[in-house]
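Human: We require from you a standard protein entry with sequence in single-letter code and fold as tokens, and nothing else.

Assistant:
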Amino acid sequence: MLDCLRALPVERLVGGAGYYWSPATGTPTLPRRPSDIVLNRDARPGMPVLAGTTRDEGTLFTSAFFDRAGGPLTDAGFDALLAAASGARAAEAGPLYRADGRSPGRSWSDVITDRAYACPGLVTYRALADRGPLYVYELAVPDAPSPFVALPPDLAGGSAHGAEMPYLFDLVPADPELPDDQRALADELVARWARFATTGDPNGAAADAPTTRWPAWSGEGSVLTIGGPGPATTVRPGPEFATAHRCGLWGVRS
């Protein structure tokens, strides 16, 4: 089977497989599984980690599972999904997620973001904090390009799942074009990621360091908020991250 796969043209493999969601290991580029290194399984201790999420992770999945698969999520559908997700705390969850002017799909996207990405991410950051240097970010550009599919109007206008990719790499499926006023942010992020890959620290030397210092996680630590009003980066405390993403509802303390 392996010989057969190796003999196939790359175009046939890529065209038939869709997206490959996991890193391919066992090559000179990535000889080991990242999870093995992060968990320090027979690897040197103190491995630096850079990790993060986007502020609107869920919009891509709401679009995929509802808008692009039959129609937008309805009010009744949202209520049923939220009740199933929050269980005994459904009465508390409703007011936290349904706001005036937000569609059921946009509200459900917030649930996905919090329950499946931001709050589990916070648990992971806390678990990694004593293993080595840890740098955490949240991409929050108000109008970041969606790198996989165009989102419907009620789900657009945020930082969707994978929205970091157009800022960091040229090779993305949809190859979205960055607005001119965001190219400086892309240059900064590429420099930070490259500096981290080279030295284990995204800040670099004082001579070429960006204006906003990215602090290593310490205790509750801090999250580098990338974006916001304009392209500048800002830093906000970790507990605010938990509050903003309603992590207490999902069993993660602030």
Observations:
- The chain has a mean pLDDT of 85.
